[in-house]
């Protein structure tokens, strides 16, 4: 069996050259945003401009995404307003980059929510193309899930409601307009949604200013600072960004911190490791807390996966500069500059959130992810995405096991699978039980070429049509997505 930390050394998506012809636009400015949804360039696209010089690492401080303030506070809900609009950001020092944003910032504003208290978000679309907002990892009615063809038309507003009837977790929101999701997210339509609950607060994990969301992306920059977007161009997106900045530094006190790591890149896999193999303690995955802390020296995240880790900086002398590297690319991601020790009443308890077994499965299904040479597109179970076709019909309240298989033929690249509506349990990889870092609730699971992973989920509470897809968004934009309907 392939170890999870070695999962993506086997394929091209760890930063090597793209393995199929690039599809889509080579625009570097905001004119690219005006293309209508569904439009694609089916010929190979080539960027003939000059690339921006690689920035010096550790010259800018890690910014923290702004926290969105409610526009109204009701008895049982918090109300927010967000506008999707173009903006200009300084991602590389000294250069101005046209981006797409929620509310004007490249990493959109963070929404903080509490289990059991509703959140209402009025999204206004000020772009020239349709958008659809998906709250990734959320258990929501189909009407509020952000179906890929259920668009917010330019110049209009749509209201999404989230009941937050699930455990505390690091969620995120992003665009899901089909054929445009890859470019929209790449250009900046992403933000954190942090769900808290009293049970998690009682554990006394690091909180407040010691609880830091870190969004990891990658990009390809033109000489003028413009973002170059070409479909399936992962090998050329060589600039790594943390909260929208290249290899920033973060001053930290000598105490414990909780880092909420999110891989929001389209295609890249991050294999994160502190210099010298220093210990990270993972406490949560996609859907919330693990049953128990999982000490590790490496955290691997495919696109859309999350890992909350705790680092105890009191172990290091004041003045220590500790680098978090991406092993696969050999590049630094972030540097921690350790300062004076501070009083610390946080802790990492030996038990976090025991995971109750799901009911017995009544159905087992097969999901095969593959590249179709004849079509030149990516497929699920041999089919391209059709929003009108229901691929799986699921009885509300039923529990199912899905055998997800990554076909190694003909090009042998890694994939992953994200299932809307549910958090699932990872049962095994090629028959070997899931490791400690995957024993918590998950909504996205990674697969090496030729690997089979079994997951188990209960489809409760909501009926309607949802999607499941590869969350390497260039692949889902190219057809690797399907529909299930809960009835």
Description:
- With 487 residues, the protein is mainly beta.
- The protein folds into two domains: 13-354, Immunoglobulin-like (Sandwich), CATH 2.60.40.420; 363-486, Cupredoxins -  blue copper proteins (Immunoglobulin-like, Sandwich).
- It is 3% helix and 41% strand.
- The protein has three helices and 32 strands.
- The strands form six sheets. It has a seven-stranded mixed β-sheet with strand order 12-11-10-14-19-16-17, with no helix packed on it. It has a six-stranded mixed β-sheet with strand order 23-22-25-30-27-28, with no helix packed on it. Strands 1, 2, 3, 5 and 7 form a five-stranded mixed β-sheet that branches.
- A hairpin with a 4-residue loop joins β22 (363-372) and β23 (377-380).
- The chain is globular and about 60 Å long.
- The two termini are 37 Å apart.
Contiguous low-pLDDT stretches (5 residues minimum) are 1-43
Q: What percentage of the residues does DSSP assign to strands (E)?
A: 35-45%
Number of strands: 32
| Secondary-structure content class | mainly beta
Give the overall shape, derived from the CA principal axes: globular
Helix content range: under 10%
CATH H level of the largest domain: which superfamily? Cupredoxins -  blue copper proteins
User: What is the mean predicted local confidence, pLDDT?
Assistant: 91
CATH topology of the largest domain: Immunoglobulin-like
CATH C-level of the largest domain: Mainly Beta
Count every helix, treating DSSP H or I runs of 4 or more residues as helices: 3
Strand arrangement, largest sheet?
A: 12-11-10-14-19-16-17
Compute the CA-based radius of gyration: 21 Å
Going by CATH, the architecture of the largest domain would be Sandwich
- Regarding quaternary structure, how should these chains be classified? single chain
